[in-house]
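anyone else get weird line breaks when pasting these?? whatever heres mine. first is seq + tokens for prot A
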Amino acid sequence: MNRGRCVEVLAPAGSYDSFRTALTAGADAVYAGGPHFGARAYAENFTEEQLLEAIDEAHLHGRRFYLTVNTLVKDQEMPQLYRYLEPLYRGGLDAVIVQDIGVFQVVRTCFPDLDIHASTQMTITGAEGARFLKECGAVRVVPARELSLEEIRQMKHAVGMEMECFVHGALCYCYSGQCLLSSLIGGRSGNRGQCAQPCRLRYASGGKKGYLLSLKDICTLELIPDLIEAGIDSFKIEGRMKRPEYVAGVTSMYRKYVDLYQKSGRQGFRVSEEDQEMLLDLYNRGGFHTGYYQQKNGRDMFASDRPNHAGVPAVKVMDQNGREVTVKALTQIHRGDVLAFPQQGDHTFGKDHEKGSRITIPLPKGKHLEKGLVLNRIRNEKLLEELRDFQKQGKRKEKIYGFLRLYSEEPAMMTVCMGEVSAQAVSEIAVEQAEKSPLDEARIRKQLEKTGNTEFEFDNLEMDLEEGVFLPMQQINELRRRVLEELRKKICMQYHRPDMQSAHQEDRQPDIDRIGTGLLTEKEGSRTGSFQFSALVQTMSQLDQVCAFPEVSRVYIDSAALGMLSAGDALADRCGWLRAQGREVFLGVPHIFREQAVRMWEARMRCFERIHFDGILLRNYEGFALWNGAEEKERLLRAPGQAGNSSRDRKAGGWISGIDRNVILDHNVYVMNQAAKAFWNQQGVREFTVPVELNRNEILHLGAEHMEMLVYGYLPVMVTAQCLAKTVDRCRKQAKPKAEYSGGGNPNENIRELTDRYGNPFLVENRCEDCYNIIYNSVPLCLFDEKAALKEIGPSRLRLQFSVEDGEQTSRILQECIQAFSEGMQKKTAGSHPDFKNDTERGSDPHQSGSRFTRGHFRRGVL
């Protein structure tokens, strides 16, 4: 791999100060959010005017500016999206970072030469998904942070599109884009930029307590050679919520070491301890980690003792006398440094102390510190002052060439050049012969080189000056101002796009409406007939109960049902019986489709052929791309064990024989707006699942006539590459076939309980063969009392999603559901809910209020 190839250092900017600091620190590009549609709603962010100014300023310095439009967008918000992006597009915006496929569709249609970067929120985990988005118009992908270095290398080699990967900063516990925990427990949606970070709170599991979901920040300085050689094009620094000092320090370090590697190669590459400690001093959670680049998961990736800045070791306790403690300085201590005490409390030093010196510190009343205890410094005042001074340098200056001509009886003329761009201006009055004090070159040069708050400074300034001439200094100053202003304008105009004429605007704005039309039939309106039902099952006992209810017209066999799929004939018999009754049987793919999952599915192709599914429930872009034939790997054309070049043709419906062409997208492949529907229509997809973060009115606005809607189930609030069993105990290497969870004891090693600070138990399922965990909400979604509203919405089917229920619970819930939605039901049963008091025998109330179910966002929605 050519170490000298261009690698972008991409810095975050939560404010304009951070933006300027990033440029000064050496960032090649900056990503930031504006007032709308950004995934950091609580950052300071930019106004629309500041965005336009920042785009120009970045381009003046030869840098790039990317806008985060990486939230899910509700259907009624789509017209605002066009009005928001249009002036930024004309202003030369380099790219948008996108999560919502409807936003992707709008940008591709209305702003065709604006680069699209696929956000990590899209959960791209394989070459298949990346290639699919590339073919749809994306130029860059930010893959899931859970990928290994080898997976990234393979993706780059297979697809060839730009790869942007996180190299420093915070890690989420959940795959980005798959988290509903903050949304469902507090109403603050991570998919809408308002995550409350519940993963940074205390939890308990398996007798262990702590910040069990709080991952350490990553730092990959030492991996820079490996990252570059793997083909990563952009080093992304996380931190739009961080202060400018943090942006300055981290960006400058990655600039320094990227340049070092490109200049000296591996042989001359070494990260100094001083630089590593500087980054730790800025922010860390119990030290750094290299993330998932070198390991799948593990206990050492967690900061289980403290969820926020842990600082660096600063002093060691030598002795305590009453409320005074004597400590030994382990590093240089500065005036203003802050020392953290265990549990709570801190101390601010009033003067400097040398390394090795003894210091007496007052303690809060009742505080006792053990001899030998090491206390950390959580604020390095000297470092922050240095970074603030760095920040105060102001605008970065670009070198320019200047030429001034002063001859009598003609206007003064000044030309300036930066690169291939030049500008010229003339004075408002003519130069005169001096009567008393002619101009001299030194005086003129001194005045012209005062470029002040502009982005320019003279590298070379030449003059052609007639002797004995005069021009008022005010005219020279004005000449400098106007020519620099013209140079700035010309440089920026290189990046600006032409204004859209009013006629063009009339043509473009309706694109939003056309995008939203899709290929579906007109809305059906309120449901007039009886409700149709579907059910998703994960165990054989759940399937047996669903078979007994003919009202369930479609059954989904979830990928978690490994034991069922392995059972072969037993499952085939039940599925055959269902199909003989005129009921559909679909297969549900894994939530995460990485290489391990693909290999596992290849091994079960014969089983799929024997069962013959009517369709497939898709949960990710990789699954769709494989299903749609986008991935042309030869191995997918071969049956297990078949060697050589197979002549067997690919099945028209996808890469898995035995499954018909029918496709439905699950709720986590978010279809929040008509534009998203239209995108998937163009891909041949006609069925969707209503996203669980839309409320009743928003679903009505979207239209649910071609969408299934969840009315019961423990919703997955997190899908994670971490393994809770490994975090609190040890890795079992392989999960056993799925069995029911009936509460209390643990009938199998696949299910664990994770308890929050209020005692609410969240069930955690270990899907070992797919190598991820699912955390389920502490209480099930249940909309059985919303019959009238659901009738008005008119979804194609109502879905019951079974996961941890046993056969008896499954049967009771099915009975309650059918009764609640049946026509002519008795009044006393209207709006009834299943008897959740005995549904899990957990012995504790999931909600403090005593409620045994949740309506999710059906009534309240998210902001």
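and prot B, same format (seq, then tokens)
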Amino acid sequence: MTQCEQGSEEQRLGPLCVNDFGERYYYNLNRHGFDKVSAEVLFDTKFGKALFEEDALNVIIGTDSGLLLRYLQARPLPNGTRYLFIEPESVLAALDANGLLTGMDERMACIAMSDWADAIGRFKITDYFYIDAVRSYNAICAQDDYIEEYAELSWHVTELLSQLHWQTSVELGAEAFIARQIHNIADNKLPAKLLAGAFAGKTVVLLAGGPSLDSALPWVRTHRDRLVVFAVSRIARQLLQADLYPDFIFSVDPTELSFDISKEMLEFDERTVFVCSHHTVPTLLNQWRGLALYLGDRLPWTSDLNCPNLESVGPTVTNTALQVAYRFGFRRIVLAGVDLCFTRDGFTHAKGSNEALAGPRFNLTSLQVQTNAGGMAPTSCDFAQAIHSLALQARHLSAAGCDIVNVSEHAAKVDGIRYLALAELDLPQTAVDVADIVQSRLAGSDEEAAYYVKALTDLRRARFQIRSIAKLVEDARRINDAMYNEHGVIGEYKDKQKLDKIEKKLKREHRHYSRLVKKFGIRRFIKLAKPFNDQDWTAEEAKQLGNVFYDAYRDGAAKLLQLIEASIDRVLARQQELALHPDFSVLIAQARKDRSFGRVRLWRRRFAAELIPAALQHELAELDSAYLRVLHDRETRHFVQAKGQSSLQNLRQRSGMLFKHQKVEELADLRNSLRKHPEPENVAPYQALITGYLAELARDHDAALDAYRQIVDGGDSLLEEALARIVVIAVERDDVYYANLALECLSRLNPLYQPWYAEIQRLHGDILVAIDTYNAYIRRFPDDSAAQLKLARLYLDQGIYEAAELMLDHLLTNKPGLEAALAMRLQLAKIRADSAVGSADVG
């Protein structure tokens, strides 16, 4: 049986309850979550062992009224682990006021977002990101979000963590970047520097994926013959639909998600040049059939193959394309689709993109930026950071004589970039022959055969070096393991001297490759210097420290060797592609291994049909089919991710949040966005709800009631939200009938509304119904003092003195000093005394 007491947050958080397990929680934060099972059982089921990993920082939205915090404190906390709980300001204040956060372990903190910067600094979040040990969770109250405050908080923290994770990955030169660089050695043949200065003084249009791209594409098509066009790879689908082939297309991201959103670029022909970072996702580069230019270094170690080159500039592909445009010699750069903010109705990208197909984004925070038109538009934390980095870059390029303009009035205003309408652009009168310029610059540089020989030499040299490092490290690991006695003290100093010699060899004879091994396995090395160490070193741990160091060396070397061996195989396969009579079995095996099914089209273009053995034609057909399946698959991981941001749960939370803060324009924009939602039949109740909200804010109660009745007539979806608003309007209009009807329905949906229903019955004169309703509520929450006081008052007013006395006795037994109950008891005593006097006078 759950017991409740009413507090200052009565209307929002609901009563403070105590379940059968003695656990206190706010009813409206968790509702029935802890009715039948204890917090321990629920948290064990939800989190398992996830919260008890050593050396991790757990960022948790919500505390489930402090129950999650106490659940953790009741167990031995793992060494080196910290817990950062985040609550809405008002919830945090209520939890503090009711002692639900007392006795917090120093390894935990519960904060509001105003203390975020201080808390993540104190808990060394960057160090935890370095060892890939930041975890984020939503408590049960944040998942349910009955108070409509946790959703935006969770969205905001997720964005902040994502941004911090990206920043630390770049700082470290993460494994993924190095792995992709080694993977791409076979295909990073021509450096982008070959085109440095090739377009001196000319104008280029840079197309990106923002919503304003839609209005720019018709203009680009009209003036295509007078434009040099750069495009980011994610808009390839839209360009193909518009029958626009860019001169240059850019990609920098090493993740598979980048392939998901960019794969349509593989359908461009030789008119387009691919410019990519050395660590771009391999499945884009190794299936590209045209000319490709790489940025940065070919190899992650010192090598003659690392010729002078242009660099990839972050954090976004737009930054890279902008920098390349300047280095290619362009002195006017026209930006289109570089919005860095969203449309007012929640669309984040241009039509045809996965994001647009998924529908408007509903998990937007309140973050906004000024646009070129002077208005405000919603944006995200990563876009806000991109605006800052783009402004720094634009100011630098502008100072160097480059004119950068953005043709969208709805794009974010960025320092160093001026707004200029498309109609005002002064275009060159003559066409630029891009193909001729490119070919003249690249003449004599395409020496594939010679490059592959050099690449193999370098890769085999690296393999020899890293094998040597692996052997030295294995010897060091064995020596270190035997060097300490049972007390953790070095027992044989000759062993120490052997280790010192190995260290010198690693630093002198293998210094370049040794640094690479460390860089590649940097997260494992950083784990040696943990953010926090809550226990003193034991003798065994001191001994193990050296082992961990050499294990990190060994593991890094082993992974590097795997990548280098695979890269050697890949280069050998590319050499086969240059042979007069290639071994197609080698080519097919490599294509399957790399999932580069599209290379089959390159082979068919390069080799006469009679060179391809008939026995292998079936396998080539299978590769081509696999390529087409991948290319045309729309249900990608990225699309699933995009649909998650357009979920109707997010819509409910966002609409409620905007209504609470009386954001009329944003609510109207949100309603407009639903007209473009891919599931119109499912959003009808939400359209009605938002229509009702807008009507209420306009004080048009009749229109609001009409909208809410549509929801009630429609069934279960959003029923509680609609009924609650009907009650508010009915009470405000003194419409007892509708208030009574709506509250009766609400009290069946949610027991929180039973005291409200009882009260309106009392006002309506239905005293017995009011008493029965109060009693039903108190049976569910036997210690809700506010409801008990109201019932005692009702008994008293109706002359049911024995029942009033029983209720007051119960209240004062639990809360002896409750002034309202004491005052009511005195009133009851006076009534009885007056009644006794009256009876005596009659006698």
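btw re prot B: The longest strand covers residues 57-61. The chain is about 55% helix and 10% strand.
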